[in-house]
What does this fold into?
Amino acid sequence: MTHVPLSALDGAELPIIQLSRSELMTSPESNGQKPQSLAPPARKNRSLRTQLLLVVNLPLALLVALFAAYDFQSSLDSRVKEKAIALEEEAKSLLPAVLQLQSRGVDDVQQYVDSVCARMQSTQSPGHHIVVELSDYETVVQANAHGILSSEALAAMQSSVVNRQPQFDADGSVFLVGAEANENAAVFVSESLSETRHAVFLEVMQRVAAILLLAAFAAIVASAFLRRVVAKPLDRLAATIHDVERGELGRQTQPLRTVEMNRVVAAFNSMSAALAKSDAERRRQMDKAREIQLNLLPARLETGNTRCTYVYQPADDVGGDYFDAITLVDGTQLFCIADVTGHGVPAAMCAAVLKALLLQASESFLSPAAMLKSINRYLTSITLAEDFVSMVLVRIEPHSLNVQYANAGHEPAIHVRQGERIGRLESTGGLLGVTNGSEWEDISLDVCSGDRLFIATDGVTEAADEDFECFGRGRLEELLGKLATLDLVTATERVWNAVSAHQGTAHQKDDITFLFLEFLRSSTAGHGTAISRQGLVAGCSSVPANTPERI
It folds into this structure.
């Protein structure tokens, strides 16, 4: 007995995507289309530091704006009162001089008010203007230094004084006015309010700018503090979490600078340690489960006139594919391959049950169809409603090479005849575990020395690449035809290499198992062994080198 040489398999990557029958019928991949995500685009979140600064600075900006409005209005009111008093005092000081000059004539009064008004600087007294009413001459004298008021403006000024209002609108501007009068003359002194408003606005803006500079400095300090105390520690914690996500369970992170953050760190470190402990226990149990499942595989392949190679590659630590080789009570050889729905631990448990049921049935029956019926009767009573199994049984008479098979909803076995002719051994009944009382049919197969029978689970034909394209039955049959002239071990390696190359870097989603049988005339029975390398289990049985080519 010899092992399958695995030099061609060293370094071969094993990730494969497998689509179930229902997924192939309903998913976009079955039509060659890539799946499209229906999720809405992810919302871009702001950092904690940014949100905290916004929460602090937005209300602060609102308060500054309210303060600026209040400060402007109160400062303007105060400035207007001060200016109104100053204009009234100026009018009082001008009235005695006007009364003395009134006796000399209007021209002297005009020269006087012109000289006084001209001495007033526009920056300190913008739009300064003096108006004098002389009772003796029944005339109005206006200073010419800063322009004169229209008759409407004079009327508005006089009306505001009568109504004791310090402001009046005239010629599109707002003016302040102060007045002093007696029975002989009246003096009005006015100034434009626009420059006063502008001056007050500038003063308020200077105060606001100072506040904003202080706020900006405080924001910079707060940002640096948040980055040092919150952002950077959280980044380190996130990096550690990503390490745990990648499988580095048990990773711990350093304490942070605040009591609150250290509570998070302590909780994370405790969780990480618990995950590492739980994962170690899970791995121990999965290693034991893998040991048990590998022990279910046949340690010996009593072959007689049949040579056998096989490949077994679960998608997870354990799988739902099962194969066996049993010598029946009459000396005939029974080969079995089965595929449980799904993969992983639940499927592996069902596969273990299948082993027991097959051994029980093989002790009572010789017909593959009768064995399937017996297995199905017990399987439907102990499995869940959604669990079902596909299975192929092949019974071989060791001397005459009479072959009998039954197929319970499994992938068709492929009969490779001499001359590269291909035939399919289709299903002879439904799946196991669906309904009690199902029936199957035995089919006899005529084989010649050198014929081969390839039996595989759907993980082979449904192995998919990154574009969700399956390996397919057509490609498999074409490959088997081309390999018909090679020895069985080399052909087995070529099949595995082709499937592995097709799937590339795509993730393996289903278990991959296949048996490759070759019929030869021999009375010497051999046995096969299995070895494990990088999760792949492969093996073969041998026959004497001088075996005749035909029966």
